[in-house]
Amino acid sequence: MRKKWVGKMMVLLIAGLFLLAGCGKETSTKERSLAKEPFERTEFLMGTVVKVTIYNQDKQEALDAAFERIEELAGLITVDEASGDSEVEKINSQAGIKPVEVSDDLYYLLQAAFDYSDTTAGSFDMTIGPITELWHIGFDDARKPEQSEIDKALALVDYTKVQFDDEAQTVYLPEKDMRVDLGAIAKGFITDEVVEVLEEHEVDTAIIDLGGNVYVLGDSARGEGVAWNVGIQDPFETRGTILGSLALSDRSIVTSGIYERFLEVDGETYHHLMNPETGYPFNNELAGVSVVTEKSIDGDGLSTSLFSKGLVEGLEYVNTLENVDAIFVTKDKEVYLSDGLKDTFKLTNDDFTLKN
To answer: Where are the alpha helices (DSSP H) in 101-146?
Structure first.
């Protein structure tokens, strides 16, 4: 079932900074055979709220299959030193000792993470684990490390050292205490896999939300040719307050932002998006970046990478990419759009200013 890794694919667990709006429960459209009430399931998985909503008739089995796939993949990826059960944790525990054979799914994801690390010249780095583990932002034991600890951890962050053996399907971290962290790409990968499961069950109208990694499948339940109305969350507020909206179909939207998970120390705020070069959070004018892509794995990686580049460079870069768009929100509540969104994005919150 696992497809081969081909070409350039673009992706801490990051809860998204957006929500969905205007998704009606019923439609008169007959061709799609939509249910009067959607099939819906919500669970807490991978440290976040996961929700799948299917609008087609008689598709309960598709919903069950989707969650089976989510749980299967989460079991491969979740990093938990206490249990050491996941394949990723086994790779980390064998760093400097021996290569670890992994499943088709994880091998594909790790190669994607490596490719994306390379494509972004390390602004996304799959071996950021020693740094994220040190800060542990988003957990009860989060703290600001000493500089000596950060320096020691930084010496272990280098994606180019990861060794793959295609024939044996093994992955090896050659230095003790190196750690793979797929948090910035895993939810996008799983979202795409859920889309695949739903399509295999002939579902063509659905919403997938993996803790904010959102994918809208097909046209809106309101009618054929009608896009879903996707609200972009105000990054300065709790979930439910939007700054604007987009009309989307068969697209993923993923956000990276600084007000979602953070640590406050001596009056200074440290967010969870770590710079692999400094060992500290990225520090620029951005509060959040939302990325619209065909594949969620691409949006996941690009959201981190674009955030790392800052407003000017990030906007210039995203405008060079095909079938990729982004919304940049600054700490001053200014909103900037990539070229492809200028005719479709609607600003609805007067606290923000649309600048381009």
So the answer is: 104-119, 129-135
Could you give the residue ranges of the DSSP H alpha helices within the chain? 60-77, 87-93, 104-119, 129-135, 147-154, 186-200, 296-318
Average pLDDT for 300-305: 88
Q: How far apart are CA 91 and CA 242, in angstroms?
A: 40
Tell me which amino acid residue 132 is: T
Least confident of 104-113, 143-152, 183-192, 231-240: 231-240
pLDDT tens, position by position, 44-53:
988 788 999 9
Q: At what angle do helices 104-119 and 296-318 cross, to 10 degrees?
A: 10
Report the alpha-carbon distance of residue 295 to residue 297 in Å, rounded.
Answer: 5
Rounded to two decimals, the pTM is 0.86
Instruction: Write the DSSP assignment of 167-232 as a string of letters.
Output: TTTEEE--STT-----TTTHHHHHHHHHHHHHHHTT--SEEEEETTEEEEESS-TT-TTPPEEEEE
**φ and ψ at residue 259, rounded to 5 degrees:** -100, 10
* 40, 113, 143, 157, 277 from 61: Cα distances, Å: 12, 31, 44, 43, 46
pLDDT in the model for residue 298: 94
Backbone phi, psi, residue 346, to 5°: -120, 120
User: What is the longest distance spanned by two Cα atoms in the chain?
Assistant: 65
What would the pLDDT profile of 108-164 be if each residue is shown by its tens digit?
Answer: 999 999 999 998 888 889 999 999 999 988 778 889 999 999 999 999 999 999 999
CA atoms within 13 A on the CB side of 296: 31
* Lookup result for tokens 């280098």: 158
Beta-sheet pairing, 334-337 with 325-330: antiparallel
- For residue 105, what are its two tokens? 């799914």
Question: Residue 195 and residue 181: Cα distance in Å, rounded?
Answer: 24
Q: Rounded CA gap, 84 and 243, in Å?
A: 41
Q: In the beta sheet, which residues pair with residue 291?
A: 254, 326
Range of 32-36, 172-176, 271-275 with top mean pLDDT:
172-176
State whether the Cα torsion 185-250-238-337 is positive or negative.
positive
CA 104 to chain centroid: 21
